Amino acid sequence: MAWLRSPVALATALVVAAPTLWLVKRYLRARLVFRATVLPDIPALGSPTSRRHGTAIICGGSIGGLLTARVCADHFDRVVVIEPEGWALSDEARHGRGYTGTREVHGDDGTYTTVTHKRSRIWQYTTFHGYQLILINMLRKLYPNFDVRAEEQAIEIKPAALNLWLNGHYLRMPTKNGVHPSETLPYRIHCSRAAIETTIRAVTADVAPEIEYIHGTVTGFKLSTDSSNVTAVALRKAGTEEMLDIPCDMVVDCTGNAQAGLKLLSRALPPAKAAKLADIRQEYDPQLRFSSLSIPCPPNFDQDLERIIVTNPNDPAESFPASRFHWWLFWGALADVDSVNILAGRDTTGEIIISAGHWGHRAPPVTLDDLREYALSARIRPVPSWFLDVLALLEPVKNQTTSSSMKLNSCSRIFYESVKVLPRNFIAHGDSVIRLNPRNGEGVTKCAMGATTLDGVLRRMPQGPHDSAFSKTFFKLLAGRTSHLWNSSRYLDYASETTVPVAGEKLSDGAYFRRLVPKIFRLAERDDDVATRFILANNFLIPNTDLVTISTLMKLWWQDWSS
After folding, report:
1. Edge-to-edge strand order for the sheet containing 281-284?
2. Mapped to the 3 state alphabet, what secondary structure does 209-248 carry?
3. In the structure, what pLDDT confidence band is assigned to residue 179 with cuts at 50, 70 and 90?
4. What is the per-residue pLDDT across 433-471, written as a single tens digit (0 to 9) for each?
5. What does residue 398 show for φ and ψ, rounded to 5 degrees?
6. What percent of the chain has pLDDT over 70?
7. At a CB cut-off of 8 Å and minimum separation 6, what does 31 contact?
């Protein structure tokens, strides 16, 4: 150890060690980002490849199926989408939203007017959706003309100026140089489910016109003699008794909530292998009820908004007219503290869109009067007075409100990564694998992340779906990138005493996580670095583990000790 007593030797050792440590740190960081996010796979999205793998069959032609078909068009000679709803395959579905009028609803929620439409299989079709910041990055890579088509559908891609209140704490969006709101904010998609689905149908047809669409229902998988791969997909064409078997090199389950892939595999596999699939699906009931209200802009609305001032409660000097914000309020609460959740802003068509939801059996608001009463019932702290002022502006047009009211009684997760009997060329993602509580608006982004993960695996495995490890590699990577969504959503829902937990679990499960979350909200309200990490992690722009750093843990400890 004589070198420790020699300044020259010690300096030399440090010079040699420092770059090595830097390289190790950089490597470990890259591995973490790869395993926990889709960020490394985004740059190559949309780039055609020279390797072609035969025929890919996509079961389901909704958003997840369309994104997957677009990805497969870069890797397969033939791509076939099987969709059970005929209207979804029409020209109208690529250029219009299929609204057919309105009807009056009389239910336990009250009496209200709702919009009718032709997209019968999508229960949230007319409602405004939330989209994470990362989504626009993936869509622009897959579809170079996305922004043009989005503008045609009145989709706005604007800075994410949100008034974000979580459990009574106000969080600032990530900014540069403290300017808020401004062009320095990350960009975000603002639109309804109908608008984004219509746009994705249009751009998929533009960019990959070779994709084939069949109106029909998948009825079975045909397997090889050793059941190691799916050799064909059986289907029944709609409106006929005609049955078809389409040979395939890869099959993707994009059937959404139906999660048909698990059922089809269970029927196709030999009994001994099928038995191993019996316990890989978890399900619980969050007893969630929510509504969405659409209200036309009254006369002089923009001028009136200019006079309503939105203020940062922690910094009164940071005040702006309400007209500066696309979304006026995102009010989220934890179920063990409050049950009021509100998202309010302006649709791209000029309509005012307000969504509300909660756990339990209470009817959600379906009229403007209901909504005002609902907002005033917040227990954790009063909603901002300026939001009530915005609602007051809508009073002259409240009778023109259209609403929808929904219940969610099933969230589920299939642990495909945990079994070894899957055919090597079977893939599933989106709601076909994880169906979450929709209050965080992760559904469309989750589909895009699944398609992006598939694209990356196809690029890294030269044999593609013919590689014996293909399916296993995909599901392992997908689980690393999305399983935290299942855990966090489930544990937060367990805070409500009306939630029916997964079989074998208790509502007390996840208690430590539920104690940690409000502490992070409280810290983020006065710490911009923590707020930025929280927002970026929840938008899939950094690994979620970046939120719980040593620095953050020390701040949390100090917050607890000093309070």
Report:
1. 281-284, 411-414, 434-435
2. CCCEEEEEEEEEEEECCCCCCEEEEEEEECCCCCEEEEEC
3. very low
4. 999 998 888 999 999 999 999 999 999 999 999 999 999
5. -65, -25
6. 94
7. none
